[in-house]
Amino acid sequence: MTLAILLSGQGGQHPGMFDLTADAPEAQEIFAFAKPLFGGVDPRDLARSGGDRLHENRTGQILCCVAALATWRALGAARPVRAIAAGYSVGDLAAWGIVGRLDPADLLGLAARRAEAMDAASGAGFGLAGIRGLSLDALAGLAAGRGCHLAIRNAADSGVVGGPREVLESLCRDAQASGAQRAVVLPVHTPSHTPLLAAATDAFRAALAATPQRPPPPSAPRLLSGLDGAAVFRVADGLEKLALQISHAIDWAACLEACREFGADRVLELGPGHALATMARTALPEARIHAVDEFRSLAGVIDWLRQD
Questions:
Q1: How does pLDDT run across 151-170, given as a tens digit for each residue?
Q2: Per residue, what are the HEC states of 143-209?
Q3: CATH 3.40.366.10 occupies which residues in the chain?
Q4: pLDDT beyond 90 at 24
Q5: Global pTM?
Q6: CA of 235: how far to CAs of 5, 103, 213, 218, 258, in Å?
Q7: Alpha helices per DSSP H over the chain
Q8: Fold for the domain defined by 3-122+195-306
Q9: 188 pLDDT above the threshold of 90
Q10: How far does Cα 116 stand from its chain's mean position?
Q11: What CATH topology corresponds to 126-185?
């Protein structure tokens, strides 16, 4: 078996996001590392409380990383030897923890720093919109004509645009009038992966430079850059892309193509939601694909990974 591990970005946080891992002994250290970042509040309690706070930028980025790391720890011996890891947006940072290149406590601290830098750079009134059913060239032209930016390439006919929320709302209406099948403003309040966040890239680059790196263990999954889908072999190059993706458009379609080329025949999305699993079903039609959120128990995930 060759497993592609996909690490979720923001948007799918929900009160039950830790139901499968909350009591897993292997995951307790991850929850403990996160508590100081929430003023002593346990991330499991914070998630269960629900509400708008789950979609605040800082809270959401930390929670997504906690979910990925906790689940990966909890899978334990069921984790396959041959695997590849790719993360979407903040999931790109989580991937560095999955492959063992960053200490978990350091990684969660970086998630907080990343969100803080993004908030400081963007200010209020900005966001993202997801649009499906238009070519990326057409979508980029539509965005540029309204002072917005193409932020994510999900597929040949699917992308995400960043800019002022009031402009995004009208852009979505125009996209639907132009034939888009779906056009919605997302529950994210930062224009991630656009030039509007250039200052955040600079700040996060400095934070990464000040954080110790760890050599990955021999059995670690291969790491892909969430910016362009290229395998990360040189740490310096990978860290630079990790900083750049905050203010540059990311090519998730290239990440999925790299998973296919690596021979992934099974795909598991770690983190809240199932958006990446849904996209993977189109890009890797021969693979067996699930999101952790689609299982009723951690034992069910483990059994699925152990199936021939």
A1: 999 999 999 999 999 999 99
A2: HHCCCCEEEEEEECCEEEEEEEHHHHHHHHHHHHHCCCCEEEECCCCCCCCCHHHHHHHHHHHHHHH
A3: 3-122+195-306
A4: yes
A5: 0.95
A6: 20, 15, 9, 16, 19
A7: 28-34, 43-49, 57-75, 90-98, 104-122, 136-144, 165-177, 198-209, 235-244, 252-261, 275-283, 298-306
A8: Malonyl-Coenzyme A Acyl Carrier Protein; domain 2 (3.40.366)
A9: no
A10: 17
A11: Alpha-Beta Plaits (3.30.70)
Residues with Cβ within 8 Å of 208's Cβ and at least 6 positions away in sequence, in order, are: 110, 239, 242, 243
Q: Locate CATH 3.30.70.250 in the chain.
A: 126-185
| Tens digits of residue pLDDT in 70-83 | 999 999 989 988 99
- In tens, the pLDDT along 109-151 reads 999 999 999 999 988 899 999 999 999 999 999 999 999 999 9
Residue 303 CB coordination number (10 Å): 12
